UniProtKB/TrEMBL annotation, chains A, B:
Gene Ontology molecular-function annotations: coenzyme F420-0:L-glutamate ligase activity; GTP binding; metal ion binding
Domain Coenzyme F420:L-glutamate ligase-like: 14-218
Pfam families, sorted: F420_ligase
InterPro entries: F420-0_g-glutamyl_ligase, F420-0_gamma-glut_ligase-dom
Name of the protein in question: Coenzyme F420:L-glutamate ligase-like domain-containing protein
Protein keywords: GTP-binding, Ligase, Magnesium, Manganese, Metal-binding, Nucleotide-binding, Potassium
Amino acid sequence: MSVDELRVWAPEGLREITPGDDLVALLVDLLVDDARAHPDRALADGDLLVLTSKVVSKAEGRVVAADDREQAITAETVRVVATREHATGVTRIVENRLGLVMAAAGVDASNTPEGTVLLLPLDPDASARALRAGIAAAFGVRVGVLMTDTAGRPWRDGVTDIAIGAAGVRVLDDLRGESDSFGRPLTMTVTAVADEVAAAAELVKGKAAGRPLAVVRGLAQHVTDEDGPGARVLVRVGEQDMFRQGSAEAYAQGWKDALGERPSSS
Amino acid sequence: MSVDELRVWAPEGLREITPGDDLVALLVDLLVDDARAHPDRALADGDLLVLTSKVVSKAEGRVVAADDREQAITAETVRVVATREHATGVTRIVENRLGLVMAAAGVDASNTPEGTVLLLPLDPDASARALRAGIAAAFGVRVGVLMTDTAGRPWRDGVTDIAIGAAGVRVLDDLRGESDSFGRPLTMTVTAVADEVAAAAELVKGKAAGRPLAVVRGLAQHVTDEDGPGARVLVRVGEQDMFRQGSAEAYAQGWKDALGERPSSS
């Protein structure tokens, strides 16, 4: 389906979030205020709301003392994927309890009060569903909601935002069965729409600007009636994951297993 | 820096590109026609043009017979990263001559005439510079240009668009030195702006719609006077790449080397 035009904006004015805040109510207020200043931005059916997950973590009180950072990373870790030593310590790239492979399990020290670090939200998909329901109740419109975080990736420098929570969004757009411009079936293409939307939103929200929410207009074809399976379906797991271990870790394991399997007496 | 609003659109009407076409002239015509129909879209200083690299490949005649596909992949390959057997053959994930790690080296069978496959452009950064110069000559405005392709990534399902060529764009936005909302320095963050823009543009261009060019407005702060180093700087190489080999390949290499280092007689 064709998109005529995509528009992305990030309302200003959300105050610093603290544990116990009613985040959905604050976001509704933010959107009401923004629409008052910009009438053409009044929330409409088919809009997407893209929220930096960090504010959800803050509302949930997912803050720990920076001294407990390494312990917190361990607690969030399901499986270590790779480690790297550097001047100030060891970076652990791990699969966390959300299935996300991230440096330090997604535990983050930026945009948090001095001496603290933030963990990822408990259940970003649930948070997305709650925000979606709150928007429907307040505005009577059907929107999609994404929760985002910033992540590195293999082979490419620089970080991008990805979707770690979703409600009411077709996170994967399966084009298999549609045709290309020569009428041949597109056999291979499943687009990670939610990650592309997260990236587009980051360009507007930024990292330092204090605008954790973006509204994306023009993608109503990806907004669904049902909440759907959430961002969890973006996670590739098990045998499908050809980069389940860092190269150095896999190499070392192979070496070790070879010596174990074939003792020197054989 | 704050972005007030991001807008992305994809002009319709570019005809199918064939070898030898003057692609820059055709794109200039497309933008002139689009601005006639939509006066508010007239190209402006600070706009970004995001072009699917496939049309560059077509203009360059980078087409080979589908029967020669495997051979073409081999020719484009610098290094095999991982392989996977499946029902219809073996998928090779390789580093290609542009430094990109991609399935089948980026050789693609969609949106090409029956019986053919397309290779990536010879030099996407050079193509981006040529388009940028052509736009400056035709419109007298300073724009940024990105060339994109679609790629898979480890750990996440679905494909996204990435930047494989760039001119006049700050492809990596280094925020180290700026401050977060608590006044603490952002020490870790280098954002892959060019990949986020590529992703945003894909949401509008789509895969089947026949609109390979998108205009992105609102990111003038990332448009530079100089052409800059291109998209090549997004490629992470050598020791920095912790996922230089697939896990299975690295494991097998470790096993083999262990037995080589410690022969059974030792």
